[in-house]
Amino acid sequence: MARAAVLGRLTWRFGRVLAVRDETPTARTLVLDVPDWPGHLAGQHVDVRLTAEDGYQAQRSYSIASAPGGGRLELTVQRLDDGEVSPYLTQVLRPGDPLELRGPIGGWFVWHPGEASPVLLAAGGSGVVPLMAMVRTRLTSSSPTPMRLIYSTRGPDMALYSDELRSVAGRDPELRVDLVYTRQAVRADRLCRGRRRPARRSGPRSTADQD
Ligand SMILES: Cc1cc2nc3c(=O)[nH]c(=O)nc-3n(C[C@H](O)[C@H](O)[C@H](O)COP(=O)(O)OP(=O)(O)OC[C@H]3O[C@@H](n4cnc5c(N)ncnc54)[C@H](O)[C@@H]3O)c2cc1C
């Protein structure tokens, strides 16, 4: 029985792109319809495989951003301009296109909504994707578990899901979100804690210096 479940997760299957959503200038969320999706836990990932016309294949892993439930999956891909796979996923793939994947994969870095212990989540860049699945799972399951997310990016324009995080953190006192910008601080941003840099002797002060 367990062997069948593992084999099921390792079976390649085709999903279809339902929609794409730009999260930042360089990151895009793919909303996928995956028939016969076996379900997943927050924190798991999938392997995505691209096949060229000449048969060449490239495979990469992407964390699942969406909460479990239904056959829809969301992946958020950060584009590396000199990368092989991420430029295709973020710039070429369109709604209606097929996408080959397998999963869910990973059993250790997961969060079950039944767990009562307070959760501290810390992420930088696209590392927030599996943690977003945990935040979303907490919401969809109405879990009362206290959760705190500390999320570091270079600046506000690079932060994934910032509107959604602001919205959910504003409604739920047990969910605390700290956005930390390492190269640019925005004092008006309630969620931004910034990062203090040593004062310069001369020259212009950055907004981070003033924080
Ligand atoms: C478990 C897991 C989950 C992940 N989840 C996400 C996610 O949610 N979102 C996300 O965006 N990414 C995620 N990743 C990263 C993702 O799998 C890819 O690594 C990423 O998208 C880059 O792939 P690419 O093909 O575009 O770049 P690649 O072609 O793999 O290149 C990556 C970098 O390495 C350099 N490089 C390539 N080959 C060489 C070489 N021979 N010598 C020196 N440098 C080289 C490239 O120039 C580039 O800068 C995850 C990875 C893992 C393992």
Written overview of the protein:
There is one protein chain. With 211 residues, the chain is of the alpha+beta class. Helix content is 19%, strand content 32%. It has five helices and nine strands; from the N terminus they run H-E-E-E-E-E-H-E-E-H-E-H-E-H. The longest helix has 12 residues. The protein is globular. The chain starts with a helix and ends with a helix. The relative contact order is 0.15. The structure holds flavin-adenine dinucleotide. The site of flavin-adenine dinucleotide has 16 residues, from strand 4 and strand 5.
Brief rundown of the structure:
With 211 residues, the chain is α+β, with helices and mostly antiparallel strands. 19% of the residues lie in helices and 32% in strands. The chain is built from 5 helices and 9 strands; from the N terminus they run H-E-E-E-E-E-H-E-E-H-E-H-E-H.
Furnish the topology, listing elements before pairings.
Elements: H1 2-9, E1 13-24, E2 27-33, E3 45-51, E4 57-63, E5 72-78, H2 86-92, E6 98-105, E7 119-124, H3 129-140, E8 147-153, H4 162-171, E9 175-181, H5 207-210
Parallel strand pairs: 7-8, 8-9
Antiparallel strand pairs: 1-2, 1-6, 2-5, 3-4, 3-6
The structure holds flavin-adenine dinucleotide.
Flavin-adenine dinucleotide (FAD) is lined by residues 45, 60-63, 76-78, 80, 82-86, 126, 129.
Q: Terminal Cα separation, in Å?
A: 56 Å
* Helix percent band: 10-25%
Shape: globular
Can you count the helices? 5
* Number of E-type strands: 9
Give the amount of beta strand, in percent. Answer: 25-35%
Tell me the major beta sheet.
6 strands, antiparallel
| Ligands bound to this protein structure | flavin-adenine dinucleotide
Mean pLDDT: 87
Order of helices and strands: HEEEEEHEEHEHEH
User: In terms of structural class, how would the helical and strand content be classed?
Assistant: alpha+beta
